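hi support,

uploading two proteins for the ticket. first:
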Amino acid sequence: MKTTSLKKLLLITLTTAGLVAGSLIPAQAANKSITCYKGSVSKVVSAAKPKCPTGYTTTKPVASPTKVTGATPSKAGGVVAINATYKGKISLLWSDSAVTVTGVTATGTGTTAGLEALSGNGSSSPSSQCDAINGAGVLGSGADTLKVSVDSTSKGCAADADAPTTVTLTGNALITGGTGKYAGASGLLKVAGTFAIKSTAAGFSESPALTLTISGNITTK
């Protein structure tokens, strides 16, 4: 009985010691994985306590926006103001029933919007002191020009019934296009001016001084 008891006691002791020893051995920690980045290079690191190598970080780099080459930026339209006074000459040729403006040349000052030069022509068939006028012209020179044409409201009014007298011009100039930065431009400009005449006899021609003010907004494409 004693032998058996000692064996049992020894077996129980060894088993207990094994369980205690087993509880003292730490369990192997499960591996974790992280992704490390360095520029365009990425690397996966797996360990119980993973750590990025020197020079690497866990922050993923932000992709740079794709640059589109060969694209032409859109050109937005706008509004250009003009408020200029043009001074020069107007050449007139009278007939029995009409007057022809064979040419207008003038130079502008003020807010010219880069359109310092003025040229044009026109006509009228006067039957009273105030009559409608017709005409077209070009503002500017070189690459940037603006084309205009007087509308039906435009008139020339003489201060007196007979020459010599002063003629006052009023009305509007319709923008019909242009070149350069004014290509495809539109708008309506206000026109006012004066010039003097010496005679209205048929065949009489003269080139009196002309002062013309043009103002308004030019709409560009």
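and the second one:
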Amino acid sequence: MAGASILCATDLTSAGPRTVDLAIAAAKAFGVRIDLVHVLDDADSWWPESPELQAAAEAAKEDSTRYEAALEAELQKEQARCVAAGVECEAFVVRGRPWRMIPELAQERGSFLITIGPYGSSGPRSVDSAGSTELVLGSTAQRVIRASTCPIFVATGDAPIPDGLRGTKWFVGTDFSESALAAVSWAKRAAARVDGELHVANVVIPAGGEDKPDEERTWRQVLRDQGKLEAGKKLAAYVEEHAPSAQLHQVVSPDYASHALCEAASTVEADVMVVGTHSQGLLGRLLVGSTASRCIRIAPVPVLMVPEQAR
């Protein structure tokens, strides 16, 4: 992959080191360089033109310049960490709106992958959902995922990231859509590159009434049971066609598909979860479905978001 790169966008907060760790592991796995960037949000950089305020404006500009220099010094420390790990790395601070600049920089620099943190400088926030606590994905991460045309590696979870992702387990949930197929295809290539394992799963709702004879079951239970059998056959045929070396899992759960997939990923001790996104509308932005967005919020391991067109 000569000339290719991974764009690692770090906010230089407590979440930043894990984002860089993920970029280092991925760069080793794919044999590419890291373009390490911090985007200094200049949305509030407005300088008054009134003569009586020029002294204050100049002082503010000087403070901004000193702040940028401090950020560059911190970024250089992360760059040194990448180099010490044996990865070529370029580092730079740019000004702009992060959610806009990150996808643009990835395109300009020929990056085939972006790594970002799940939340920003305000730190992690959580909400209660369906009886469990979920982290809230930061607005910058959400917007980057929607705007990017290349896969996004989100540094979720807190489990150690294996060196170079060697021998890792890649867990993909599929609903048999085109976006899911893109995720399976990407994960298959990645797992093969690192001598890892590929796991493909599909979630079905339990039929209920398994302890009753057929004549005592409701029509809904009978249909769900038949649907489960058909889904199992479809999953087997799907894996045989698209990822014959993968291990398949039919996950039976009444819970959200995201919760069921994350639990199944934990059961097989997966190192990476992979989910697909698909384009929508005239602007071609990416639609992050409810299952994908929840996976990012609750996954115990990094989540790779694969756009449909990245297949």
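thanks. also noticed: The CA atoms of residues 57 and 63 lie 10 Å apart.
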